[in-house]
Amino acid sequence: MVAYNWTLFQGFPVYFKNGTMYKNNESPFGNQRHSFEETPLSEKEKENIHTVDGNYKFMYAINNQFPGPTVVVYENQTVKVRVYNNLANEAVTLHWHGMFQSKTPWMDGSSMISQCPILPGQMFTYKFIANPPGTHWYHSHHGAMRREGLHGAFIVIPRQGKERTDIPKVDKDVLFLTQDWVFNKNDAQTAEEQNWFLLQFSDNFDTAECTTSRFTYDGSLSTLLRLYNNALINGKSKSFASDSSVNQRSVPLEMFNVTLNSKTRFQIMKTGSTGEYKISFDEHKMLLIGTDGYDLSPIWIDYLFINPAETYDVIVFANNTPGNYWIRVQTNEVMDQNHNRVDPNVSFALLHYQEVEVYYPDSKRKECAEFDSCVIANSHWSPITMSKWEPCAQYLSVADMRAPADDNRVSPIAVPESLEDFQEVFLNFHFNGSALLFGRPAVNAIHFKNPPVPLQDSPEIVNERNVVCNNTDMYQCGEFCRCTHVIKLASKKVTQIVLLNENGISGGPSHPVHLHGNHFHVLKYASGEINKTTGFTQGPTQDIQFSSDFRSAQWRNSSWNFGNVPGINIENPPKNDTIMVPFRGYVIIRFRTDNPGFWLMHCHLEAHMDIGMAVVLQVGEISEQPKPPKDFPKCSNFKRESLYKSESKEHFNSFLQLPGRQTFI
């Protein structure tokens, strides 16, 4: 909501009045106290305004664009992106979400894992091979900055001759980036509020009124952190509430133009930091054809759930009466803290047939009925649960989807040839605390902390017991364990990971978990124990035996070891790089460890990751990993040994324990 004159290096606040967009322009005839005059914006100026939701807010941008510039390349092309950090205070990195980074793990873009952060005033050049093809994206991976502007689409087009023949040919592709947006707070503030357990006061610190939690269909917490404002679609949103400001009601909606009988592929990406959305096109179906850049056997659906970091490709057929139709982006908050039903928040975009004028439609969303049922994709709740809410709908989890017939021939599911060819890991993404400390995000009861040097550049740090820990080496851990959590996996082995979400308490959310540098097949989805009367999750899955501290887990039935789990799909499972781990349930994923490196695996709810819900998978021995270039940037701690020699250790520690300081051992 600011117009910038880049020649004069000056900005002018923008506002709406009587349907016209004005800017506050300083009058050249003003006195010492200054005076301002209203100036209507030119059409060119309007094109460069980030209206967003009509509020004024400090935000980030890439090349003055929000969302950031779309990068489109061909499969297996070499990509070079030069990043200049012109921010005043913040370091930054860019993660190329979904890229394998084979033989270039130091170009993954995860701060202090693959590289040093790019400091203000510095430049860094990313160079890597674009693979795999499909709908991907990029975003900042240092601190909490992604939602506020540092993200964009990264599209990798398949090489000629690899086009799909099992789907209709589309007339055009369009991007659909959707995210949560909070206009009165920045992401760093939100993350710190969660870290210090201040979210219950964050509606208004002056009154100390608690923020009310909202719940999803099975009684689990919504992943949408308070406060919630409108969702953005391609950086735009509009309020229809009568108590909103003129700016909020006047800013433009995102509009997608189609022509009668055309076919449009929507490349949908959930780029925000929190929250799950339910997307639908009024009076139009979607043909679901892909997820996370990978092909799916086509499925006609009416609704699509999407979580942070996930991408989906759908084809919309413009085969209805020419007009204007709502595209709905709805939250999954369906109950208040007393489990009373509430109306979810809904944001809008416009599907516009170019044969008619633009107007606000009166279209209706589809009502699921016995004679006209619905198909709802990417549900992570139990069918028993969902039948209580929408009995006339078919709910599909990711594990219910299927890869095309040819896909398993080109990229087959990893099947072990012997017991020695198989390794299995249980990873519990949960909230862990102690008698004195409220639960905070963790993996296997370990709260992730960045190392002092990037692992990929200085791999020998994994041998430092004062820095790195895991479930077999807890040297530095007490009741509350915070360290650089690294799990070592042997290379070139079939690796099965059981992703869990259990903390022994009745409340908590599901978690969207993303694995860097790899894709995986989704073999099975399982919910927790469901109350068949209410549909609520009332206990953990009975398939898993947890330790008392939830730091380790195993199959309750030992015959399930070595990949012998009943109900897994090894014929045509879908491929993903992000998966939603259901509250008190589990997901089984499998891949072959053929990409040596240090790969971050984390919850993609930004505050959860920043506070500690992450783990690094070390694939292969250090000797097997490719070495970064000799001139690769380095960073580390600086410790003056003379300080220890000239001062007694007791005096030094007493200095560090002064208010506002920490003791490091």
Automatic annotation (TrEMBL):
One of its GO terms (molecular function) is oxidoreductase activity. It holds the Pfam family Cu-oxidase_3. The keyword Metal-binding applies. Residues 51-160, 228-355, 472-620 form the Plastocyanin-like domain. CDD domains: CuRO_1_tcLCC2_insect_like, CuRO_3_tcLLC2_insect_like. One of its GO terms (biological process) is iron ion transport. InterPro entries: Cu-oxidase-like_N, Cu-oxidase_2nd, Cu-oxidase_C, Cu-oxidase_fam, Cu_oxidase_CS, Cu_oxidase_Cu_BS, Cupredoxin. Keywords: Copper, Metal-binding, Oxidoreductase. GO terms for cellular component: plasma membrane. Belongs to the multicopper oxidase family. PANTHER family: FI03373P-RELATED, MULTI-COPPER OXIDASE. This is L-ascorbate oxidase. It comes from Magallana gigas.
